[in-house]
Every structure is written in structure tokens, then in C-alpha cells.
Known about the structure:
The first copy, chain A, is α/β, with parallel strands linked by helices. The first copy, chain A, is 41% helix and 18% strand. Chain A has helices at 6-21, 32-39, 43-52, 65-75, 91-98, 135-141, 153-165, 192-204, and strands spanning 29-30, 63-64, 82-87, 107-114, 123-124, 127-131, 146-149, 170-173, 186-189. In chain A, helix 2 packs across helix 3. At the A-B interface, helix 1, helix 5 and helix 8 of A face helix 1, helix 5 and helix 8 of B.
Amino acid sequence: MGSISKHTLQRLPTYLAYLKSLPCADNACISAAAIAAALELGEVQVRKDLSAVGSAGKPRIGYPVNDLIQHLEYFLGYSTRNRAVLVGVGNLGLALLSYGGFADYGLDIVGAFDSNPALIGLQIDGRPVLSMDELPTFCQRENVQIGILAVPSAAAQPCCDALIAGGVRAVWNFAPVHLKAPDGVLIQRENMASSLALLSYHLKQPERN
Amino acid sequence: MGSISKHTLQRLPTYLAYLKSLPCADNACISAAAIAAALELGEVQVRKDLSAVGSAGKPRIGYPVNDLIQHLEYFLGYSTRNRAVLVGVGNLGLALLSYGGFADYGLDIVGAFDSNPALIGLQIDGRPVLSMDELPTFCQRENVQIGILAVPSAAAQPCCDALIAGGVRAVWNFAPVHLKAPDGVLIQRENMASSLALLSYHLKQPERN
């Protein structure tokens, strides 16, 4: 993951969301202690994370909020546009296609793919639904870098392979399976089953109060 | 998290999905080495994880597949039913409501809540959409243990508080904000913004090939 740890990187969007939730004020500053308290993190951790994106707080003043927001957005690449395709236009796929918020993170979904002939040819919020045969060519032609997989488990590996054949370098996998990919391709798994396991296990424990 | 580590717990659904994907055969066995190779994990890790759920492989034979599936399902509580409500019937909320797969994980969504009067009174796949005022009473009466939050960031904390007032002990949070909760309540965040940060950062790195 290069020069910054995966865990730091995963916390950065949380800092950004928190800073953006603060009332707007020019020249407002915030201390690492205040950020740490709001997000229930350690103050040393906050200083370390923010220094990794090139922000340094000033003694007794803290971090200028607007500068910090800009640093985080730049570092996270939200100002860079990344073109993505969605594979699998079921309920989850439709929700991901319709969700307007991804554009704020620099993610533009430019096309969708499905194997169901009844869906092919539809336009969903301005994006065409195309057949799986067209996937690699579309990705190459449209310079697509991210593939979002919202297909059933059994279809996930072949769809992942088709994305990689089209030159995609990062795959966001919502299917509950482990995928294999060559070096240089990142598979980021959104593992809802793991989250459910944690919730369910917590409920099995006796109440502490 | 009690006697088992969070990381082990998060891997268990992956073992289970893999074992269930294998061709059915009575008395079939599988070695830790084969599981490790398929899931790209270390063999020692696999043995340790499976021993935490009470499964021990036999030398030169391995683990009986069907027993292992039963152990994992029992340990993960998929045979126990957990009653949940969904708060926020937007695109994501609708997708979560319509997704049939959660029942396999022991999760039953028994009701949905929204602040939009146009939605209140609807039935979605047999679940009523109710007003936010009714949330705490409904949760108490229906013995709801899990709240699923699919609301905008600004609404997440008040909705979380309402769930906890209704006796919910575990909250699955899809809003990109940090939530505060009393001890004994688990907040499990599904952090899509963090996943996007990892994808976007990966694409900023020079290609290695």
C-alpha cells in the first residue's frame, strides 16, 4: 500500500466526513484533541494520521479546518475522477447505480453490465446496461479503472476475470467470495457477511449491564 | 469480543462460503492446506481459526466438510434468528430490504422506518414502513435486537439513539459517520468510503508491471 498504512488510509474518510460536518467558518481551527474526542480515537493517532497527509497542527491553535479538508480530499484522490463500471444489475447493483454520493469520492460509474437479456439496452440514470460480451472492449475504450462486482458468488470470478481482461486495475467486490487476481490488481472486498458475523456474535454474549 | 479475536470472526464467513461452494459428497474431507491455498491464507492461520470454533483436523485426513460447515454455522449463530429493523428507506435501504440473502445469516428484517410521509404505510416484501415516532415502541414490542441504519449522515446519530431507546443491542451503520453508543451496544460500521479510499489510493500508485 506504499508509504501510508492501510489503517491510516481507512480512517481518512472519517476525518474528512467529520470536518465537513462542522459549521462553516473561514479561518476556523481545530485541535487534534478535539478531533480525537469526537471520533473516539487517540490523540497521538490523530496527529500521526494527519501528518501522513502532510498536515501539521500549530501549538495552541491546531489545524486550519479548510486546509485540512483540502489536504484530505487531495490525498484521497477525490478531486481525481476514476471511471468505473458496475457488473450485476440486481437489487444491490441498482442501489449502487442510483446512489448519487459516489461522485463526491471521485467515482463515476459510466456503464453497467448484466447477463439478463431483459435488462440489456436499458438506461439507468443515464448509464447503459450492456451485455457481458461487451465488457472488456467497453472498459478498454472508455478507460475504465474500477470494476464494481454485485453479482452472485458463482459468477464473481469469471466477471472479475473479464474486468481484468478489460484493463481494470481495482475491483470492489460485494460478492461473499474470495477472488483471485494478478499482482498489481487490488481486490477490495465489501464483506457484509463478516459484519453480520460480528453483530450476531455480539448478541450471543451475555449483557454486561 | 470475548474469547475469539475479531479478525478470526471476520474470516469465518469466508471459510463457510468456500466450504458450501464445494461439490456435495457425504464423508468428504478437506485439509487445512487445501483451504489455505484456495483462500490465499496461511495454513497455520486456518488451523488456528478452525480450532477456535472447536474443529480439529485429523492427520492425513483433514476436516470432514459437513461437520465443519455445521460447526461454523452454529458458532456464527446463523441457526439463531436475530430480529432487525431497517431505518431509512432510500435506494440503499430498499436494496437491503429486498435482498433475500440475509435470512441465510439468521437476520430477519421485521420492519422499516422512514421520516418521509409518502413512504409510511407501504409494505415492502411484507414488511411495513412505519414512522420514526413508532420506532422505540415497535423495537421493544417485537423484541428487535439489530438496527440497520441506511439514513443520511446528519440523521444517523438521532436514529441510532432511538434504536438504543428501543432496546437494540447492535447497530449496523451504513452512514459514513462515527456514532456514539453506550457500553454494551455494538456499532458495526459498513464503511464504503474507506473502501473507496483504498481503491482510489491504489490507482494513484504507478503500475508495477
